[in-house]
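note to self: dont lose this again. the chain is below, predicted strucutre after it. 231 aa total, dont forget to put it in the shared folder this time
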Amino acid sequence: MPVAIITGASKGLGRAFAEALAARGWDLVLDARDAEVLKGTATALEAYGARVTALPGDVTDAGHRAALVAGARLLGGVDLLVSNASALGAEPLVRLAELPLDGLRRALEVNVVAALGLVREALPSLRAAPAGAVLTVSSDAAAEAYETWGGYGASKAALDQLAAVLGAEEPGLRAWAVDPGDMATDLYAAAVPDDDDPRPDPESVVPALLRLLDERPASGRYGAPALLEER
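---
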């Protein structure tokens, strides 16, 4: 069975994508900071017959990243690495004039540095996989200027660039940065707690991610809405 590592997998888009992969017969290594919520997610996904290794921890910890990759190797290797864990930099979001520099550092550490560290840890296994792929979850804030989203958007723009360069340097792999579009997630609620407008559930984005796996287009940046519209 193919094996995926998914960070930020206890809820939201991470969990929804993990569930779709489990239903397809994938084995999974899942990361999140909340051990109890992650355990519940793992138990639910095991009902599909998948082997699920749940490892709570912080992706900025090099030892934790090594443990994620080691767990995947025990299941057979790393076919897909999904960097979904994210930090906002401030909760709720604030304008750049008020953005704490420590918050920006945290966003960069989680969203960029940890993602690259995990790629480096997993790269030998990804290269050995029949169809190795890296999927990084981006944001429209990486490409558009929205008030208060500057720190988070800057970190996601940096992540997009890392994914683009990885695709150029590793032509045998696929490296996709995906902008999922608006979603109803805890992250968005923490970012803009006063915004009560309805947003799509993360499950609605999953078919776009599965399309990337099924069709394996060239490495690059993709918008989930466009992938869904083209079906």
